[in-house]
Amino acid sequence: MTEPAHPPPDDASIIARSLTAPEEFAAIFDRHAPHIHRYLARRVGPQHADDLLGETFAAAFRRRGTYRVDRANARPWLYGMATHVVGQHHRDEARRYRLHAVALPDLPVEGPDDRAIASSSARLLRGQVGAALQALAQGDRDVLLLIAWEDLSYDEVAAALDIPVGTVRSRLHRARKQVRDALAPAFEETSHG
């Protein structure tokens, strides 16, 4: 007779064990790295995602002692870490662009949204979507992208960003309205053109 299979330990148990056996934390990476990498690649492009994935899990490893063990799934916590790492990446990138602009005023500086794409209408819309997302307040953008790209629930976004669910709802509402308003002229042009 075979013994019944035991369910794998939840993330909280693994993180708790990793406090005395740090190598245990590798299981958290194995479980969640593909999801976090996909999110990072969508936020900063594939060329930066690997580095930021490493930064995200290094930060999570350093902060594992603060993990709330009442949360069995660590993915929202990791999305929160990744969101903070992305924010720092964007601040660092903006600082580099400012320095380049001062040091090399004749050279154009290209950002991640300046990549060429095949169709001119798609390029126009992509640029407008990028501009609309860039125009959002950082907190509003983080909520919108975690829900739209990562399909997190309001509760999971609240846990990831350590904010109340009501704040998630208001930020999402505000972000959706601003993006809709910013893209309305492009859709009117397409339907009349």
Model description:
With 193 residues, the protein is mainly alpha-helical. It contains 8 helices and no strands. The protein has 2 domains: 104 residues, Orthogonal Bundle (Rna Polymerase Sigma Factor, Chain: A); 78 residues, Arc Repressor Mutant, subunit A (Orthogonal Bundle), CATH 1.10.10.
SSE layout and pairings?
Layout: H1 11-18, H2 26-44, H3 46-62, H4 75-103, H5 120-135, H6 138-148, H7 154-161, H8 165-192
Helix pairs in contact: 2-3, 2-4, 3-4, 4-7, 5-8, 6-8, 7-8
Number of separate strands: 0
Radius of gyration: 20 Å
The level 1 CATH classification of the largest domain is Mainly Alpha
Derived from helix and strand composition plus strand pairing, the structural class reads: mainly alpha
Determine the N-to-C terminus distance.
71 Å
What is the H level of CATH, i.e. the homologous superfamily of the largest domain?
RNA polymerase sigma factor, region 2, helix turn helix motif
Tell me the major beta sheet.
Answer: none
Q: Could you say how many structural domains there are in total?
A: 2
Low-pLDDT regions: 100-121
The averaged pLDDT comes out at 83
Relative helix content: over 70%
Shape: elongated
Quote the beta fraction.
Answer: under 5%
Number of helices: 8
Give the H and E element order. HHHHHHHH
CATH topology heading of the largest domain: Rna Polymerase Sigma Factor, Chain: A
Q: Please give the CATH architecture of the largest domain.
A: Orthogonal Bundle
